[in-house]
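TL;DR need structure tokens for one chain.
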Amino acid sequence: MTPSDSTPSPDQLEEVFNSIDAVEVGMARDLLESSGMECFVFDASASQMLGSTAAITVRLMVRAEDAVDAREALKELGF
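>> reply
TL;DR here they are.
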């Protein structure tokens, strides 16, 4: 998902994962969404425009109240 009218404001979100690999971020997003957490992917287009360099990473964001649970879930799954 990309930022849109339904995306909470950035101050309501926390980054829980980032990578230069958009596929890896997508996998992490799918895992969190399958457990019921709403996720938002930021900077995917910017990262692709630069050829997936380390200059701009793709960021996985969740609502601030879900951040601790999201990080724990990702850690348990090896992210």
